[in-house]
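Intended use. Records like the one below are meant for learning the mapping from a protein sequence to its folded structure. Do not use them to infer anything beyond what is encoded.
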Amino acid sequence: MTDLIELTQDDGLQIALVYATADNLIGRPIYAPDARCALRPEAAACLRRAAQAAWRAGLALVVYDAYRPAAAHAVFWKALPDPRYVADASQGSNHTRGVAVDVGLLEISGEPLDMGTGFDDMREQSHHDRDDLPSEIQRNRQLLLGIMLQAGFRSIPTEWWHYELPNAQEYALLPDNEMVQVYHTH
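Structure written out for the chain above:
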């Protein structure tokens, strides 16, 4: 499908699609093990800019999720029907539009920067602008935020890892794509 392009480590990214593993909020793989990281071309260009900015800061950008098939999104909505963290499956997700990405920062050694919570930690401690977190965590979150905003993304207030194109709603929802196959939908 030409609506999506694959991103790889050749784009300066570390790809760690957590939904192809059991280490996620569902506790089991949702994507097939050979799932690929894909975005619409406009979002991919922003992500490449973000990877370059991270590299200039002596860091690496790790991608936890990008395009998400509707079938996978429905699994998340069923497990956590809280619109602060998961878009209503009947309305679609900006991940399913191919214009949202979940990311973190790594030291060049591969060690993740401390963001105060893990990826997909659906608690208030994951929200931006927390006054109750140590300054190192605040600094790391602000660094990621600056990299992603400079690259052309916007953030949402409830997830330090989630970024999307500012005009995400202008993109149509995409049908499930062969690049990211879903299994275990029940």
